[in-house]
Write a structure and sequence with these properties.
Elements (H helix, E strand, L loop, with lengths): L13 H14 L8 H5 L5 H6 L10 H21 L9 H12 L29 H4 L10 E7 L7 E7 L17 E2 L11 H7 L10 H4 E7 L5 E6 L107 H14 L34 H4 L7 E4 L3 H5 L4 E4 L6 E4 L5 E3 L1 H10 L3 H4 L11 H14 L8 H15 L1 H8 L41 H9 L6 E4 L6 H14 L7 E6 L7 E6 L2 H10 L3 H13 L4 H8 E2 L2 E2 H7 L17 H7 L24 H6 L17 H19 L12 E8 L3 H14 L1 H4 L10 H4 L3 E3 L4 H14 L3 E8 L19 H6 L2 H4 L4 E7 L17 E3 L15 E4 L1 H7 L9 E3 L1 H13 L5 H21 L14 H13 L10 E5 L3 H17 L7 E5 L9 H11 L19 E5 L13 E5 L10 H8 L4 E4 L28 H7 L7 H4 L48 H6 L23 H4 L4 H5 L28 H4 L24 H5 L5 E4 L1 H8 L18 E3 L13 H11 E3 L21 E5 L6 H19 L1 E5 L25 H6 ...
Parallel strand pairs: 6-8, 7-9, 10-11, 15-16, 15-17, 17-18, 18-30, 19-30, 21-27, 22-24, 22-25, 23-24, 25-27, 32-50, 38-39, 38-41, 39-40, 44-47, 49-50, 49-51, 51-52
Antiparallel strand pairs: 1-2, 1-4, 2-3, 4-5, 7-12, 11-12, 13-14, 20-26, 28-29, 31-33, 34-35, 35-40, 36-37, 41-46, 42-43, 42-47, 44-46, 45-47, 48-53, 52-54, 53-54
Helix pairs in contact: 1-4, 12-15, 14-15, 14-17, 21-34, 25-48, 26-48, 33-34, 34-35, 34-36
Length: about 2050
């Protein structure tokens, strides 16, 4: 039981050494403290400090000392907790247990068996004495001196304690110290004394433990006597802390750096490979003007300013004064040692409720300076404004009796409003001037949420996992606050992640244990609890104190907190001494605050610890920066705007404006008044074109060069044309500007197709939620936010997309933009009527699919129940989520957004399978679409900040930040947005005055503006002067407040007017509620550029402002989807500091700068796409007002140092895409530019150092103006040596305007300029077709030459530059531990909340789909979110089946994609409503017979008598048979040339027409509609798939055996059959009587033989039958039975016998006919038994092909002749069944449809006799003696019709009806595969291989013999019947059968039956004889009736060789025919396959 910490110090000198070192470090200001601790600690810990980066901190001063000391201190604190005052650990056996438990599962403890006969009852000792507190509490107990009564916890008796006496020396004091190792105890029951081991004592008192007995585990409470002298439970025994011990992760401190729960032990000392530079960016700006620390790596400049990688803001969960859901609970989390009596639900429920009501939001950040205004996106929607947040609401939080008086004049005296964060315990009541204090429960909510363990840990048995103790939470909070710099604001997400990291590391092994069983069951990526690789809120070289040794006790907490706070000076003050309560601490804090003792203090932490009481705490924010930021963060965006409006309306801001206007040199308004331009005085920027350069030169002087401004106004303005005149004059047109309406890009087409595929997937699913086949057209309505510009923009896109024409809305000529407005609606109060109208229209037009496109779907996710009617919010919930919309089956909702996070929660209505994500450029998806453009968005902007070769596109303005911060200090009551906007507009005004040249240099205006602002203004003013047509740039100024934006517009407009710049640029106020309004002169200018002739045309969208020089002030709480033109050059977002710290709002603002550039454009140093290629133009002048061209066209290396110093108006200093060099204003003109070396500065040195503006200006090197030759090339100009300017920060060099080196009175146009010899750009570069907008209506420039004279033409190839507030810049450029931008870890949207604090971070490797699943798992909607009510008990999801979500980055082209989707959806619906119908003319039609009419043309039914007189037409007219042998008919001569031989797949190439389906069409399995549900098996009375298999047996002579068939009969169809008894043997299929008739019934059973078409067969006859009752039977092969049953569960199926699996269509028809006749006989017998007539049973059946899709009828019209129209199959069948003498006919049918109508004249015979196909009405009674040939594969219907006619039966075709056959390329009986016997793979086998000589060795084929024979005869006709080829007059005589001998051979069919009907053959000479299975009716005498040509061919076919010889002998064929032995053949079948044999011979 020794003290054996391996490797740790055991000397008692440790404390003295440690404290001496700490004291020395605290007193020292210059010396870095000697690392005593690292000398005393383990050697293995030394690399930790070095790897962490401490050795790299070479800087000097307090900052580096604090960084080092904080790291040193944290390790010391850990060890202090671990080591007792005596220098040894408290209990080493406890440590051994901890160590063993953390590395392996606990080993079950085997207790020593008790002695014989002793008591073993729990609660009694082994002497059977009662030890229970409830029993002995009143008894007097003998307690020896030095002993204490202690309560022992017994696991089996959790409700009571056991009493024992323990020597107090072995128990800890109230601080957890001074406990001796070991044990000494007495039993108070039996009195036995001297138990020296707790194990022995636990056996004696019968604890019955399952684990190793430990006194720390089971000695729980002190026992004391109450007033009644009863022994009761007292204070808990403080074993290593207040509430129990923490678990250790290992024996080494290095475990605190474990990066994940999968990390190997040997990786414990490693660190992540990067420290984001932006973590410490806040330290680069020193408000006191201190120089930046040189030589310190950027990532470690100020270690205590590190931005935590994943953060959630403090202070915005609930408004001040509102209690948290658990505000009154001191410790609502689970007990540290959870027992069976504690329900985890009590905590979980409270936490979830608290999460919903007090949400967290990323509204503050740790690098937010005071100038930032922080948002509360997370507060409840009914929160009051700031002025209403105080007062009585504060007093409701505290228990009665405790109160604190707030001092009077607190705000006036201290100039701040303190923010009090509730921590642990209840705050006292605040009285007095309560509105000067803010109260927040956010920190308390953070504490509670971090103590609510996830359910996976709560319900995993007796879990050893414990939440963080209150003491550890407080200490971690102090650690976090200590790190924050003076400009940083705490983030609740940072603190939350610190808690989670500490908790994970303290329970690493347990977390691993519980995560392992979850992994296999998880789907996709596992989003379990993970350990982050870097600790949020701490530098990488600092580690948390591990929880591996002992818990933190209340007595240790105060001095550890004090020790931590001492490292940061006075920034954090801990009040704990003599603090008895929170009230006392707050009173003391207020006293110090009023006395000025907290002047340098940002945070006051009050800690109250008292023995036997819970630890209490609170945090008071007293820093001015932090108080302002936190106060403003408590506003919702709406409330913030309300407060701003209030301050503007009450005049509070006037003092600020007046102060800003008053400068050192006089009032700015006075300067403006003095600079006002008279009407007769020209504007310096508006003179004639010829002096443009001179004027620009004179208006951009440096202060030293602006001494004589009057010289720049000498030019008269009388020749100045108006803007429209200038643009319209021929010589002033810009050849580089062109208009091209863009087409759909390939990636947009791909996304549109993805949308379409998702819609098809919904339709194809088994849910029956969308029946695409039932829709014949598309209608749509696009919902956009209530922004007039967005509305007009969408209308413009729609108008130019062609969708309206494609949908058939109207013709191209009459479509106007006004008409397109009917399809777009703003989401305001007027939208309700439009949605209601659409819903009613959808309900009445069930065949129209309505698409509701909700564009910018993230803008309104408010619940309707939480929104007021006048707010405009909640409309989406009211309209799109209403039952009338969601329940309408033909309405599909498409949400489109760039920020889908608010729609991806646990309660979302959108299925993850219905999400469509834009292809990501990072996954190389874009490369698949051959895009000519590349998207430049947020990621590319961030990439540009990581390159040091040029200024990044996204940056911040330090000068502006410094000025704003100073004013925020001066005006504490003003909202920071008011201050920042005022400063920004003031800078723009001053920059306008300075750039215009109207104010002399004596006023020194440049020091009152910033470099960035001056550059923006100079670029705006000079850009249009370089283009003949005055094309220019747009500057976007984003001011969210409408009131501030209106003020800014008025202010800028006044300055512009007074400076005489009205014609130079436009100032536009972008109010979302108002239409776009610009001046008439600028409108005329745009009309001239766009060549618009309409006099009333005005621009309605920002896209139409392309190339217009303007400042656009975009207002509104958030952008509402407005697209900006490609001429946008600067995106000024310096005012968006508040309410923008959710991911959606941040990315929404940055999305304004999104851009499309050409994919071929190579960026400099891979900063991003779209860079101009480097040029070299040596003859450009160095210092003219054409500096912009020099900066972009004079080639230089991207690394050239001069480029970093560019400051020309349009130069590359603000744009990394301007990679060319220009001359810096402070660089002398000597030597060559090529000699300049690349800079050695790092990116951190490029950060501007902001001092006061005066200091900044004073340090600028002024440029000396020098004269030189006008043609002097720039290559001869050399900047000053690098060492002279190396130390100049970039902001200083950039603050100087372009210097002019030419004489002031000489313009560039008057100077000789040599022709430039520049390197030409590639062709791709000259085709500048980039687009800012991605819509179809974008403009596209086309360059006419590589050297652009138009600044706009150059600018459209580059994305705009973005200026951000410093706070947001630091956040956006920072990365979290996963490598993602820090903003991605923020709360995704203000309307959602995190589901748990125990969530992992987003991963950099996540796809869009995985990111969606992440948010769906870890976010929940707040109560005011529209999806919060979308929760159904008992369901895991509640998705709407017809709702899609399209997401993609902003400005990428989503509008064009979904508009194209609407077009292709319409085309697909039309395609679905159309089918390919065989459309062929009848063949071999004889026009001569058309003159005879047997029936009147209007006859309804045929007359049997007349039909018998009509000749039978033997000719086959069906075009599908144009490749078979024609049947000889006297008087007909076919044309053999017109019908070439076709191949096997010829039916795929037959002529078809696309025909729209009628409402009477037959459908395949893909059709779903509500009407079909019951027909297809959705009968509520029967279960789906419920059917029975019935056997049916009958005998047939031809088959020679019994045939057993099977019927599959659904339960719903059993009434069509008769059974021996219910459920018994199947007897017959019921048939109606001939006399029966019903208008809704078809009497004839319909048989459809089918194979291979279970999906595509047209078996759904519901619509074709028009709902009539009918009996439909599918005839399928046995091996296909299961698949047909699956797809058609409600159809009756007749399963052919197994022997017919390889048979053809002839077998199916043969079996159908014979079965039907046998059933007819059975029905007659059944009728006879019932006493009914036998002859009255209906004898007809229908044989229908499975491709019959529609039916038509012919109407005879007197004017137009015969007209065909679609009719139902019901109408046709009822008409045919009603034929008066139908029983006289053996076979009836209808003709095949053709688009050519009725061939011949209009009076065609309505009925005819001839061949019938595809759709037959067969009389099985009259045709009983004529059977189908069951062996036939082809032409079986021709053979059957010829035999039926020869038998004397009437065949009638109803020509007034026609059937349309759909082309189905899959399956069918014509699909034959001929393959060899040896392999199943189809091989090329020629027809000559189909036969072979008998008994020869030949390749046998696995194909039926009959099929081989038929194919052989078809393809070898010339060999078999050479005399018959193309010899119609000498046909081949075929007896009793018809076989196809090829199209060039004619067959004459004759029947050998007696009394048969045959054609007259008298005098005919036949060229051949075909005898196929000749029966006894064929005799020698019969054959002698026919005469044959000499050499005619005989072919005799038999089943075997024996019958073949018998046939030859019986028919005496050898008398007239000559045979050879080699003329005998067989089909190429094996013997077991029963080949057919045939013999050929020649006529003698």
């Amino acid at each position: 039981m020794g003290n054996s910490y391996a490797g740790q110090l055991r000397t008692t000198r440790f404390e003295e050494v440690l404290h001496n070192s700490i004291e020395a470090s605290l007193r020292s200001n210059t010396v870095v403290p000697r690392p005593v601790f690292s000398q005393l600690f383990l050697e293995t810990e030394q690399p930790l400090a070095h790897d962490g980066g401490l050795h790299g901190c070479k800087g000097e001063g307090v900052i580096s000392q604090r960084v080092y000391f904080l790291s040193f201190f944290l390790k010391c604190c850990v060890f202090l907790v671990c080591v007792s005052p005596t220098g040894r650990t408290e209990n080493d056996d406890e440590d051994e247990e901890v160590g063993s438990e953390s590395n392996s599962p606990p080993i079950p403890y085997q207790m020593k068996p008790p002695p014989e006969g002793c008591c073993t009852v729990t609660g009694f000792c082994q002497a059977a004495k009662d030890l229970r507190l409830s029993s002995v509490g009143s008894d007097p107990l003998d307690v020896p001196a030095g002993f204490m009564l202690v309560g022992v916890k017994c696991p089996s008796l959790p409700e009571t304690l056991l009493v024992c006496a323990v020597d107090r020396r072995f128990l800890p004091d109230e601080r957890g110290h001074d406990a001796l190792l070991g044990f000494l105890g007495n039993c108070i029951g039996c009195g036995e004394k001297g138990f020296r081991y707790f194990t022995e004592f636990s056996n004696h008192i019968n604890l019955k433990l399952s684990t190793q007995p430990k006194k720390q585990k089971h000695l729980k409470y002190h026992l004391c006597r109450n007033n009644q002298n009863v022994l009761v439970k007292g204070a808990p025994i403080c074993w290593r802390g207040h509430d129990g011990r923490m678990r250790q992760t290992g024996s080494s401190l290095s475990e605190a750096h474990m990066t994940s729960d999968q990390q190997l032990p040997n990786m414990a000392l490693t660190h992540p490979p990067h420290t984001p530079a932006s973590y410490t960016a806040g330290s680069n700006v020193d408000p006191n003007g201190l120089p930046q620390i040189a030589g310190v790596p950027h990532s470690q400049t100020n270690g205590n300013h590190v931005v935590p990688p994943n953060a959630q803001p403090v202070l915005n969960q609930s408004r001040p004064g509102r209690p948290s859901a658990k505000g009154s609970l001191a410790n609502a989390g689970p007990p540290k040692k959870r027992h069976k009596g504690w329900s985890p639900e009590s905590s979980a429920n409270g936490q979830s409720e608290s999460t919903a009501k007090t949400p967290t939001s990323s509204s503050a950040l740790s690098t937010v300076p005071v100038s930032s205004v922080l948002t509360n996106g997370a507060r409840s929607e009914n929160a009051a404004p700031l002025s209403l947040l105080q007062g009585s609401s504060l007093t409701s939080l505290s228990p009665p009796g405790l109160s604190v008086t707030i001092p009077d004049q607190l705000l006036h005296t201290c100039r701040l409003r303190p923010v009090i964060f509730k921590g642990h315990g209840s705050l006292p009541q605040l009285t007095g001037n309560a509105d000067e204090v803010l109260l927040s429960s956010l920190l308390q909510s953070c504490y509670l949420s971090s103590q609510n363990l996830p359910r996976v840990y709560q319900h995993y048995g007796p879990s050893p996992i414990q939440p963080l103790s209150a003491e550890m939470q407080i200490l971690l909070t102090v650690y976090y606050l200590v790190q924050l710099g003076p400009d940083q604001v705490p983030l609740v997400e940072d603190l939350e992640q610190i808690f989670m990291r500490s908790w994970r590391e303290s329970h690493l092994s347990e977390i691993r244990q519980y995560q392992q069983p979850q992994t296999p069951g998880s789907q996709g990526r596992h989003y379990g609890i993970e350990t982050t690789s870097t600790l949020p809120g701490l530098p990488l070289h600092l580690s948390l104190p591990p929880q591996s040794q002992q818990p933190l006790t209340p007595s240790q907490l105060p001095w550890l907190a004090q020790l931590a706070a001492s490292s940061c000076g006075e920034s954090v003050v801990v009040l704990e001494e003599n603090i008895g309560s929170l009230a006392h601490g707050l009173q003391q804090m207020f006293s110090r605050l009023m006395e000025g003792r907290l002047e340098n203090t940002n945070y006051v932490v009050i800690i109250v610890t008292a023995a036997g009481q819970e630890t209490q705490s609170c945090v008071v924010v007293t820093g001015r920066h932090q108080c302002r930021a936190l106060a403003e963060s408590m506003f919702s965006p709406k409330e913030g705007l309300t407060e701003i409006n209030h301050q503007l309306s009450t005049g509070v801001s006037q003092e600020l404006i007046q102060y800003c206007n008053s400068q050192e040199d006089g009032d700015l308004d006075s300067l403006l008044d003095g600079a006002t331009v008279d009407n007769s005085e020209p504007s310096p920027l508006s003179s004639s074109q010829e002096s443009t350069e001179e004027r620009c030169l004179k208006t951009t002087h440096s202060p030293k060069d602006t001494n004589s401004p009057t010289g720049s106004h000498a030019q008269s303005s009388k020749d100045l044309p108006s803007p429209q005149e200038r643009a319209s004059s021929p010589k002033d047109t810009c050849s580089e500007y062109s208009v091209e309406w863009r087409e759909v890009r390939p990636i947009q087409l791909a996304v549109a197709r993805k949308l379409l595929s998702h819609v098809c997937a919904i339709a194809d699913s088994s849910t029956q939620n969308l029946d695409l086949g039932s829709f014949d057209r598309v209608s749509f309505l696009i919902l956009v936010p209530s922004s007039e510009v967005t509305f007009q923009q969408t209308v413009l896109h729609l108008w130019n997309s062609g969708v309206l024409q494609e949908l058939g809305g109207s013709d191209q000529e009459c479509v106007s933009q006004r008409e397109a407005e009917r399809y777009v609606v703003k989401l305001d109060q007027s939208a309700r009527a439009r949605i209601d109208s659409l819903t009613q229209e959808a309900q009445s037009n069930s065949y129209t699919l309505y698409i509701l496109v909700h564009d910018h779907a993230h803008c309104d996710v408010k619940s309707a129940s939480h929104s007021s009617s006048d707010s405009g919010l909640g409309l989406v919930d009211q309209l799109l989520n209403s039952r009338q919309v969601t329940d309408t089956p033909n309405i599909l909702i498409l949400h489109v957004t760039s920020f889908p996070f608010a729609l991806q929660t646990q309660y979302t209505r959108i299925s993850p399978y219905n999400e469509i994500h834009w292809p990501s450029a990072f996954s190389n998806d874009v490369d698949l679409y051959h895009e000519k453009t590349r998207y430049f968005g947020v990621s590319e902007l961030l990439e540009s900040t990581r390159s040091g070769s040029s200024l990044p596109l996204m940056r911040h303005d330090s000068s502006f930040e410094s000025m704003a911060s100073a004013l925020e200090e001066r005006f504490p009551k003003l909202h920071s947005a008011v201050i920042r906007t005022t400063v920004l507009i003031q800078q723009y005004c001053i920059a306008l005055m300075a750039a215009s040249g109207r104010v002399g240099s004596a006023h020194n205006l440049h020091k009152h503006t910033s470099v960035e602002t001056l550059e923006i203004v100079q670029s705006l003013l000079t850009a249009s002067q370089q283009c003949p047509a005055h094309h220019g740039h747009m500057v976007l100024l984003r001011i969210p407040s409408l009131a501030l934006a209106a003020w800014a517009h008025r202010r800028l407009s006044r300055v512009r007017r007074q400076l005489g710049l009205e014609e130079s640029f436009e100032i536009i106020l972008g109010n979302p509620n108002q239409a776009l309004n610009i001046g008439q002169s600028f409108t005329d200018q745009i009309k001239t550029w766009l060549k618009i002739q309409d006099a009333d045309w005005v621009p309605r969208t920002y896209l139409e402002l392309e190339a217009l020089p303007c400042i656009l002030i975009l207002s509104g709480a958030e952008p509402l989807g407005e697209s900006l033109p490609r001429s946008l050059k600067y995106c000024d977002l310096r005012v968006i500091s508040y309410s923008y710290l959710q991911r959606t709002t941040l990315e929404q603002e940055l999305g304004l700068a999104a851009y499309l550039v050409r994919a071929e454009a190579r960026p400099p140093n891979n900063l991003g796409p779209g860079s101009d290629l480097l040029e070299s133009d040596a003859e450009k002048l160095s210092s003219t007002d054409n500096e912009e061209e020099e900066g972009q066209e004079n080639g230089e290396s991207p690394l050239s140092f001069s480029q970093q110093l560019q400051s020309c108006p349009d130069g590359g200093a603000s744009d990394p895409f301007s990679t060319q060099s220009t001359t810096s204003p402070n660089v002398p003109k000597k030597g060559t530019v090529d000699t300049i070396q690349p800079p050695l500065h790092s990116q951190s040195q490029l950060q501007p150092l902001t001092q006061s503006l005066q200091n900044t200006q004073a340090t600028i090197h002024q440029t000396q103006v020098q004269s030189h030759s006008p043609a002097l090339p720039i290559s001869q100009l050399q900047p000053q040596p690098q060492f002279q300017i190396q130390n100049q920060p970039l902001s200083q060099t950039n603050s100087q305007p372009c210097a002019q080196t030419l004489p002031q009175q000489q313009s560039l146009s008057q100077m000789p300029i040599p022709q430039p010899q520049s390197q030409p750009l590639p062709a791709a570069q000259s085709r500048l077709q980039h687009s800012k907008s991605t819509s179809p209506g974008s403009l596209s420039p086309r360059a006419s030459s590589p050297n652009h004279t138009c600044s706009w033409a150059r600018g459209v190839s580059r994305p705009p530059s973005v200026l951000l507030p410093r706070a947001l810049y630091d956040i956006i450029t920072a990365s979290d531990s996963s490598g993602l931008p820090r903003c991605t870890s923020f709360l995704p949207h203000m309307s959602v909340a995190w589901a748990s604090s125990f969530r992992p971070l987003l991963s950099k490797m996540m796809t869009c789909t995985e990111q969606s699943l992440y948010y769906r798992q870890w976010t929940v909607p707040r109560s005011y979110h529209m999806d919060s009510s979308n929760r159904t008990e008992g369901r895991s999801d509640n998705f709407h089946p017809r709702r899609l979500l399209l997401s993609g980055p902003p400005q990428v082209g989503k509008t064009g994609a979904y508009l194209h989707f609407l077009g292709i959806l319409s085309r697909m619906l039309i395609r679905l409503m159309e089918v390919d119908i065989y459309d062929e003319e009848d063949i071999y039609y004889n026009e001569k017979e058309q003159g005879v009419l047997y029936h009147p043309s209007n006859s309804s039914w045929p007359n049997p008598g007349i039909m018998k007189t009509m000749p039978f037409d033997y000719t086959i007219h069906d075009p599908k048979y144009d490749d078979i042998s024609s049947v000889y008919c006297p008087g007909f001569t076919p044309s053999f040339e017109g019908h070439p031989v076709r191949q096997e797949d010829v039916y795929l190439r037959r002529r078809t027409s696309r025909i729209k389906l009628s409402k009477y069409a037959a459908y395949n399995t893909y059709h779903h509609c509500e009407q079909c549900h019951q027909y297809l098996g959705f009968n509520p009375r029967y279960q789906m798939y419920e059917s029975s298999l019935r056997a049916f047996t009958f005998t047939h002579l031809l088959l020679g055996e019994e045939i057993q068939l099977y019927f599959i009969i659904p339960k719903s169809k059993e009434h069509y059959f008769s059974f021996s008894q219910p459920g018994g043997q199947l007897e017959s299929m019921r048939l109606p009587l001939t006399s029966d008739w019903s208008p809704d019934c078809i009497k004839s059973p319909i048989f459809t033989p089918t194979t291979g078409r279970h999906e595509h067969g047209l078996f759904n006859l519901y619509h074709a039958m028009d709902g009539a009752s009918h009996l439909h039977i599918l005839v399928v092969k046995e091996y296909e039975m299961a698949v047909y049953k699956k797809y058609w569960p409600n159809h009756i199926m007749l399963v052919l016998p197994t022997v017919f699996n390889g048979a053809g269509i002839g077998a199916a028809h043969f079996l159908i006919k014979e079965l039907s006749y046998h059933n007819l006989e059975l029905e007659r017998s059944r009728r006879l038994e019932g006493g009914g007539p036998t002859d009255d049973v209906w004898p007809f059946i229908i044989l229908a092909d499975d491709s019959c899709v529609m039916w038509n009828a012919v109407d005879l019209d007197a004017h137009s002749g015969s007209v065909e129209h679609a009719v139902s199959l019901k109408q046709i069948l009822q008409h045919m069944e009603a034929c008066p003498e139908l029983a006289h006919y053996g076979l009836c049918g209808i003709r095949k449809w053709s688009s050519r109508g009725l061939t011949g004249n209009k009076q065609r015979e309505p009925f005819s006799r001839g061949h019938l196909h595809d759709f037959l009405l067969l009389n099985v009674d009259r045709s009983q003696n004529v059977q189908y040939n069951q062996n036939r594969f082809t032409c079986h219907d021709v053979d059957f019709t010829l035999r039926l006619h020869s038998a004397g039966l009437l065949v009638c075709r109803f020509n007034s009806f026609s059937v349309m056959k759909k082309q189905i390329a899959i399956g069918g009986y014509r699909t034959f595969i001929i393959k060899t016997k040896t392999t199943d793979v189809p091989t090329a086998v020629g027809p000559s291989q189909y036969i072979c000589a008998p008994d020869s060795k030949h390749l046998f084929l696995a194909t039926p013999a009959q099929l081989l024979l038929e194919k052989y005869l078809q393809h070898t006709r010339q060999k078999l019947f050479p005399l018959s080829t193309k010899n119609y007059t000498h046909p081949v005589l075929s007896v009793d059968c018809y076989l196809n001998l090829g199209p060039e051979v004619t067959v004459c069919f004759v029947s050998s039956r007696p009394h048969s009907v045959n054609i007259s053959t008298t005098g005919m000479l036949f060229s051949g004889l075909l005898l196929c299975f000749a029966d006894s009716f064929v005799t020698p005498g019969f054959l002698k009736k026919f005469t044959f040509l000499k050499g005619a061919t005989l072919c005799v076919i038999s089943a075997d060789r024996s019958s073949l010889r018998q046939t030859v002998g019986r028919l005496e064929l050898e008398e007239e025919w000559r045979f050879r032995l080699s003329d005998e053949f067989q089909t190429a079948n094996a013997k077991e396959d029963r080949p057919l044999f045939f013999l050929t011979g020649k006529h003698i």
